[in-house]
Amino acid sequence: WLQGDPVxxxxxxxxxxxxxxxxxxxGQQFALWLFGPGDTTGEPGLFLPAGFRGTSNEAVERTxxxxxxxxxxxxxxxxxxxxxxxxxxxxxxxLRDSLTMPSxxxxxxxxxxxxxxxxxxAAIHGKPSSGATRIGIRISxxxxxxxxxxxxxxxxxxxxxxxxxxxxxxxxxxxxxLLLPRLxxxxxxxx
Length: 191
Fold this sequence. Notes:
There is one protein chain. Strands 7, 8, 9, 10 and 11 form a five-stranded antiparallel β-sheet that branches. A three-stranded antiparallel β-sheet has the order 4-1-6. Strands 3-2-5 form a three-stranded antiparallel β-sheet. A hairpin with a 5-residue loop joins β2 and β3. It is built from six helices and eleven strands. α2 (70-79) crosses α3 (81-107) and α5 (141-147) crosses α6. It has helices at 43-46, 70-79, 81-107, 110-125, 141-147, 152-158, and strands at 9-15, 18-23, 29-35, 40-41, 56-59, 64-69, 126-129, 132-135, 139-140, 167-171, 174-181. The chain is globular and about 50 Å long. By secondary structure, it is an alpha+beta fold.
């Protein structure tokens, strides 16, 4: 869907990845989230009185899933408190992420924002692999740049060359796999 489209339901991803982004008045795209198998997307619009999408979503690779209509989803969470709490937690995480970006821009330079985003992607999409974490999602340097609000060229310069540092595998201009050494989560940003 596109930003401004009417809300029709919630999408459950079975396979593949979907990028959620906003488009500014200048036409610039700004990536917000990356959803993968087992994730849902589209919930925020169901709770807005206007009933329009606040973001655009597009598949970044071949993606399959199902759509649950808005009324059916709302009825389901009304009758399943555990699912309702999970939806509230998910919306709270999205709100926290939205509030974190301005702080990151104020307190972290581009390499710091890239490092934090890679650690976040590792926490969400990573799998242990030989003493490191492998992020096996396709993400372009442009998308990574949008996610950290920086020019692609600057993000490209912050990614270490192979074979030192994180190990990047690129295919078709996308970061195919990334191995990060086991790191502790980054410290919280100042309030």
